[in-house]
């Protein structure tokens, strides 16, 4: 039964206040996630000798269903309750991320995962990204509102960023650190901080990237391979580019791709190459357009917003979402050095897909139409 505008139930108020175009785009990406894990995951499971050919597919079905539920549930929250949930999530994720340095499982020289009985592996740093974006936005907004008296709030947000940066550097996860730093820089810039401070932060970030090149061998190797071809081109990138070439304009057809049989991480970091081979350039551009639509639509919704906290939080969430999608697709196309980062909602991964759903739930909640600032403090009223 259709919901009328006169419906004052929680569902009715949610339906007529949420950005349904953004919701539709996100659910379309979730549908692509189902299709692509069905196309790529069985071949990967077979190649690694998994107990079941459909192991990854069954898990991802559950992950994506859970993600859709999380996104819908979180989108019901008021901006105040978004902040509360993000603060709790940030504290929990930060503690668990520090725990990975002590009891985390080491994979390829990095400690990013915790083995949880019955649940499998958990990457808590994934949840740092959306929660940090919201909490940092809240603290920066409070600092701006306090004027010259807000120096303690600025010290708090800088200390929070430093804590997150340290734990990510220790794992190490330079790609995740780059995303978090970009989110923080975007928020500081939008907040209207003195340009000298913005330039100083930008210089600090650039210095950090240069330092990462000299300190971390895997970063140096990937950059050298990308810029100079030293040590030979990456095998995964070579196969990915071959997959895009084989797909052409319309693709070879669903399930007909061959490169996924030899492409490591075909269901995760390089799923975009599988899309290119089996569905072609047209579908690749359509997926790219979906990501661009979510980001641009979100920014346009903020043009009429007056609450600085909402503006900064949504800006951070959109920066994270768009940057993660860009890094994944650009890595597959050899436009940037390779970086293991999932394509939101399309790649396989439990922690990643649930964390992205949490962030998009935050975004949908923050960009809902609100009747008045006084009503924003209620989780169940103030929406139409």
TrEMBL record:
Keywords: Cell cycle, Cell division, Cell shape, Glycosyltransferase, Membrane, Peptidoglycan synthesis, Transferase, Transmembrane, Transmembrane helix. It is found in: Membrane. It comes from the Bacteria. Its EC number is 2.4.99.28. InterPro entries: FtsW/RodA. It is a multi-pass membrane protein. Belongs to the SEDS family. FtsW subfamily. PANTHER family: CELL CYCLE PROTEIN (PTHR30474), PEPTIDOGLYCAN GLYCOSYLTRANSFERASE FTSW-RELATED (PTHR30474:SF2). This is Probable peptidoglycan glycosyltransferase FtsW. It comes from Pararoseomonas baculiformis.
């Amino acid at each position: 039964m259709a919901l009328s505008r006169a419906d004052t139930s929680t569902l009715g108020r949610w339906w007529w206040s949420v950005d349904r175009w953004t919701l539709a785009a996100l659910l379309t990406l979730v549908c692509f996630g189902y299709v692509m894990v069905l196309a790529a995951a069985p071949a990967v499971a077979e190649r690694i000798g998994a107990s079941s050919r459909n192991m990854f597919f069954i898990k991802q079905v559950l992950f994506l269903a859970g993600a859709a539920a999380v996104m819908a549930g979180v989108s019901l929250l008021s901006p105040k309750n978004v902040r509360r949930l993000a603060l709790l999530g940030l504290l929990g994720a930060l503690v668990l991320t520090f725990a990975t340095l002590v009891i985390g499982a080491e994979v390829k020289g990095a400690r990013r995962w915790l083995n949880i009985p019955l649940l499998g592996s958990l990457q808590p740093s994934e949840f740092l990204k959306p929660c940090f974006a919201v909490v940092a936005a809240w603290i920066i907004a409070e600092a701006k509102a306090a004027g010259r008296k807000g120096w303690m709030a600025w010290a708090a947000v800088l200390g929070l960023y430093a804590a997150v940066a340290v734990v990510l550097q220790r794992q190490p996860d330079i790609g995740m650190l780059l995303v978090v730093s970009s989110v923080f820089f975007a928020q500081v810039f939008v907040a209207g901080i003195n340009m000298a401070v913005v330039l100083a932060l930008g210089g600090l970030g650039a210095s950090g990237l240069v330092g990462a090149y000299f300190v971390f061998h895997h970063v140096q190797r990937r950059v050298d391979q990308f810029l100079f071809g030293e040590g030979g081109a990456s095998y995964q990138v070579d196969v990915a580019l071959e997959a895009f070439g084989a797909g052409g304009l319309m693709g070879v057809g669903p399930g007909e791709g061959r490169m996924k049989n030899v492409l490591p991480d075909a269901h995760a970091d390089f799923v975009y190459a599988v899309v290119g081979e089996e569905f072609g350039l047209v579908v690749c551009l359509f997926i790219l357009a979906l990501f661009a639509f979510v980001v641009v639509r979100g920014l346009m919704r903020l043009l009429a917003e007056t609450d600085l906290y909402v503006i900064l939080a949504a800006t951070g969430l959109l920066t994270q979402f768009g940057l993660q999608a860009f890094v994944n697709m650009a890595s597959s196309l050899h436009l940037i050095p390779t970086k293991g980062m999932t394509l939101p909602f399309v790649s396989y991964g439990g922690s990643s897909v649930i964390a992205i759903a949490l962030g998009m739930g935050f975004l949908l909640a923050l960009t809902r139409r609100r009747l008045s600032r006084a009503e924003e403090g209620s989780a169940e009223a103030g929406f139409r």
